[in-house]
């Protein structure tokens, strides 16, 4: 049941890279084949006792590769295949910052339960939850400070992005201590921040930063597990036995982690791209909407609904207000929407002048 939930989450995260230009129907078909050919094999490699990564001794507690890197590389393949959005390059701002904060809060809380439940009810579960919280805090603060270096603003969105990076990175290191989890959060947020800063120079359009937030942070978490994994932390649940990482002088653990990152990332990208090539050749299964639908909007084109209808109040300009002292006209902040046809119903109308008949 947990694997079913994780598969649905990974698929939903990956499809974020198709924002504003992807079709729903072909995506549903894609999800079935993607889960069968991409997600399930990778999870079998690491969680099945007969999997090659499990037998080899790779350390990936909560899915740093099988969930996070897989989602990021799937999103990368998806965005490369369908191309860039219309108007790519124009600086766009977050649609609703309070919703960003709310979503981050829900993810933060849920992530602690998801990670902590992986060890059953024991001391190690409490340690994993503490590490999850610390990594998110460290990631949020790191991303916030690095963004301030560029924008000179303390951005709530930047903190939320950094917190997500910390949560993603700490998925794999279920074998480390609290101090190490802070280092993991810092490194993950820093790498992700640099990736976001240079995304406009990259040959793909990842509007929701799926690759930067999940692929890079997931890879960082898995790699750092090879350094900070401790035998004493892993054995606190009473049954897990590992050789530890480089901190326990297990030097060969690092190349195992690197090989795991390379194998999982390559498989996710290549198989995803091949699946999309095949499905896209099926009649009426093009992954990208046409240019007319893209201009109209994906919500209206694909579901027949919009978050904000063009004739709703927020897109209309209230009547012009006149300052009684200065005699000047002041328009509200919605004045920039005055050109919309919906404004006509609220715009003040001047009565037509009626010429009086002349007396003979």
Automatic annotation (TrEMBL):
It is a multi-pass membrane protein. It comes from the Eukaryota. SUPFAM superfamilies: Ammonium transporter (SSF111352). GO terms for cellular component: plasma membrane. Pfam families: Ammonium_transp (PF00909). It is found in: Membrane. Belongs to the ammonia transporter channel (TC 1.A.11.2) family. This is Ammonium transporter AmtB-like domain-containing protein. It comes from Puccinia graminis f. sp. tritici.
């Amino acid at each position: 049941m947990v694997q079913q939930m994780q598969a649905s989450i990974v698929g939903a995260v990956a499809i974020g890279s198709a924002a504003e230009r992807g079709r729903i129907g072909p995506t549903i078909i894609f999800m079935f084949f993607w889960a069968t050919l991409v997600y399930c094999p990778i999870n079998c490699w690491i969680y099945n006792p007969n999997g090659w990564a499990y037998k080899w001794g790779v350390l990936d507690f909560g899915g740093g590769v099988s969930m996070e890197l897989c989602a990021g590389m799937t999103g990368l393949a998806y965005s490369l295949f369908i191309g860039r959005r219309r108007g790519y390059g124009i600086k766009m701002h977050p649609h609703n910052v309070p919703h960003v904060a709310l979503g981050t809060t829900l993810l933060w809380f849920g992530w602690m339960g998801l990670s902590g439940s992986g060890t059953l009810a024991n001391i190690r579960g409490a340690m994993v939850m503490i590490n999850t919280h610390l990594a998110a805090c460290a990631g949020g603060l790191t991303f916030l400070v690095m963004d301030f270096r560029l924008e000179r603003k303390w951005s709530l969105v930047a903190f939320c992005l950094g917190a997500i990076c910390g949560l993603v990175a700490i998925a794999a290191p279920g074998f480390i201590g609290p101090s190490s989890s802070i280092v993991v959060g810092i490194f993950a947020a820093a790498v992700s921040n640099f990736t976001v800063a240079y995304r406009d120079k990259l040959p793909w359009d990842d509007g929701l930063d799926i690759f930067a937030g999940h692929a890079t942070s997931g890879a960082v978490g898995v790699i750092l597990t090879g350094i900070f994994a401790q035998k004493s932390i892993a054995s606190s649940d009473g049954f897990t036995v590992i050789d530890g990482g480089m901190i326990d002088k297990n030097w060969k653990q690092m190349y195992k982690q690197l090989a795991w990152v390379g194998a999982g990332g390559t498989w996710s990208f290549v198989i995803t791209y091949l699946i999309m090539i095949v499905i896209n050749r099926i009649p009426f299964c093009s992954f990208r909407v046409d240019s007319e639908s893209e201009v109209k909007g994906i919500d209206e084109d694909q579901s027949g609904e919009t978050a904000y209808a063009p004739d709703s109040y927020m897109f209309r300009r209230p009547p012009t207000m006149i300052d009684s002292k200065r005699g000047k006209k002041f328009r509200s902040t919605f004045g920039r929407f005055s050109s919309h046809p919906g404004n006509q119903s609220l715009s003040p109308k001047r009565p037509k002048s009626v010429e009086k008949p002349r007396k003979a």
